[in-house]
Amino acid sequence: MISIRQAGPEDFDLVAEFIRKLADYEKLAHEVRFDDAVLRGHLFGERPAAEVLIGEVDGVPSGFALFFQTFSTFEGKPGIWLEDLFVDPDARGSGLGRALLSRLAGLVVERGGARLEWAVLDWNELGKGFYRSIGAGPVDGWERWRMEIDAIEALSRGV
Fold this sequence. Notes:
Blueprint: E1 2-6, H1 12-25, H2 36-44, E2 51-57, E3 60-72, E4 77-87, H3 96-110, E5 115-118, H4 125-133, H5 149-156
Parallel strand pairs: 4-5
Antiparallel strand pairs: 1-2, 2-3, 3-4
């Protein structure tokens, strides 16, 4: 039995654990540096920056999806950016990943959106195969770019 539910403040420790498990899987544990209080505020505070779905298999929390709203000027509609999707290894193959993505797709539709987007690590062939199986694909002609905090702070000072 698979169920999907919105995470609440009482789920913070579980969400933090899933983030760490995802980072381990992606070989990026060294990049996890969030402060619990700050993350809690951004997820469950007065003005949440992101939302979280918890996926359960037979009543056991076994995965999560962390996402936030985007906006397409070309479509003139909002969308959802899936920042993190993780399913515990023991629950893989259960349909939980697909159920989490299905719920996100439902939210895009319910909210009058146009897109559901995410990034995939270039080496994650298992993930890419799964995403292709549900009708997703890479966006031709686009690269993902990023500024880290040092560059952001310098730019904000006009440097």
